[in-house]
Design brief:
This protein is α/β, with parallel strands linked by helices. It folds into two domains: 3-132, Enolase-like, N-terminal domain (Enolase-like, domain 1, 2-Layer Sandwich); 145-356, TIM Barrel. It contains twelve helices and twelve strands. The strands form three sheets. The chain has a seven-stranded parallel sheet with strand order 6-7-8-9-10-11-12, with helices on one face. Strand 6, helix 5 (170-184) and strand 7 (189-192) form a beta-alpha-beta unit. Helix 2 runs antiparallel to helix 3 (105-125) and helix 5 (170-184) crosses helix 6 (198-211). The longest helix has 21 residues, at 105-125. The two termini are 38 Å apart. Residues 170-264 form the Mandelate racemase/muconate lactonizing enzyme C-terminal domain.
Length: 369
């Protein structure tokens, strides 16, 4: 079974005015939908980044995959490497949600095609995708309620207010959490921080702990806090959070913070490739890694990451940025087949409006979180 056609379709879907350390989500999130069609007429689906640099890479690689066997993932890796070597590098720049960082372009592009090729392999074998990853070790995959400070609407006059409303105070965030739990059944909570004064954000965690006793809590300032702020926050957060995600920026700073506070630190920012992991282990900088198959190089490399985390005694969770159902299902299959997934996964999916989902049947339902 060989690849006969590859379609890469850029899409944009509405994104609420969610706040993070970089500023605010734009009115539309960009993604790419990848369809890999075989000479037998079967189609495998994938979803990846949709910014200009990512799209250019995907559109360059796609046609060169025609004729490749769907089982030839090493061939895919070779085509990606050869194609990207002939493209101008994307513009440099740091991104909070890894997208077109030049250092990850190959891993991003490979992942976008690996998922539909594995999808095709599973369809041909008549098994769920998780069976190709070793089989499910859990029947249900837990996700956390992902809370954001946010405005009621985007500034553009043509953009109407979204259904979630404003959330700029601890009480409003507690209400947001309650609504998300009522709708989806989530049993753990994550707060995106690094946007308001740290005292307000810490007070929000304290309010969440009072409102939802027993719920695991986590906070993520996206590396925006100084060492002094992070240490002061740690003293108030101790006993309230299950992990402290990216409070400061850089491996060295994370290692120092862990030495000075003893709190378990998690990251999706300072450990985003295997070389980072090697360095982090040597420094004891990070105790929990948030995987993400989109930029770790696909589902199989994410399994390799899981194995390394098990080897070094690190916890494992899963990162998310704005995505649709194809990514969500790939995340769920990977999580189902990962024995040492020690924390509930992140997902932005509740923030997607029903009308913007592209899969048949509409949005994927959550049951019990």
């Amino acid at each position: 079974m060989r690849i006969a056609e590859v379609r890469v379709t850029p899409i944009a879907f509405r994104d609420p005015p969610l706040l993070n350390a970089a500023g605010i989500h734009e009115p539309y999130a960009l993604r790419s939908i990848i369809e890999v069609v075989t000479d037998h007429g079967e189609t495998g689906l994938g979803e990846g980044y949709g910014d200009a640099a990512a799209l250019a890479a995907l559109q360059a690689v796609g046609p060169r995959l025609v004729g490749t066997a769907v089982h030839d993932l090493n061939g895919l890796r070779r085509v990606v490497a050869e194609t990207l070597a002939g493209l101008p590098p994307p513009p440099p720049g740091a991104e909070l949600a890894p997208g077109s960082d030049p250092a990850r372009q190959g891993a991003n592009c490979y992942s976008a095609f690996e998922v539909p090729m594995l999808d095709l392999q599973a369809k041909r074998a008549g098994v769920p995708l998780h069976a190709l990853l070793g089989g499910a070790v859990r029947r249900e995959v837990p996700f956390s309620a992902y809370l954001f400070y946010k405005y009621a609407r985007h500034i553009e006059p043509e953009e109407s207010a979204d259904a979630w409303g404003e959330a700029l105070t601890p009480d409003q965030i507690v209400a947001q959490a309650q609504r998300m739990i009522d709708l989806y059944g989530f049993a753990s909570i994550k707060l995106k921080a690094g946007t308001l004064p740290p005292d307000v954000e810490i007070a929000t965690i304290e309010e969440l702990a009072r409102a939802f006793p027993g719920y695991p809590l986590r906070i993520d300032p996206n590396g925006a806090w100084s060492m002094e702020t992070a240490i002061a926050a740690a003293n108030r957060l101790r006993g309230l959070i299950e992990y402290y995600e990216d409070p400061v920026d850089g491996l060295e700073a994370m290692a120092e913070l862990h030495r000075r506070t003893g709190l378990p630190l998690a990251t999706n920012m300072v450990v985003t490739c295997f070389d980072h992991l090697r360095r982090s282990v040597g420094m004891d900088a990070v105790q929990i890694v948030l995987s993400d198959h989109h930029y770790w190089g696909g589902l199989r490399d994410s399994q390799l990451l899981a194995g390394m985390c098990a080897t070094f005694g690190l916890g494992l969770s899963m990162h998310s940025n704005s995505h649709l159902a194809i990514s969500l299902m790939a995340m769920a299959h990977l999580a189902a087949a990962t024995p040492n997934l020690t924390y509930a996964c992140d997902t932005h999916y509740p923030w997607v409006e029903d009308a913007d989902e592209v899969v048949l049947g509409g949005k994927i339902a959550f049951t019990g979180g």
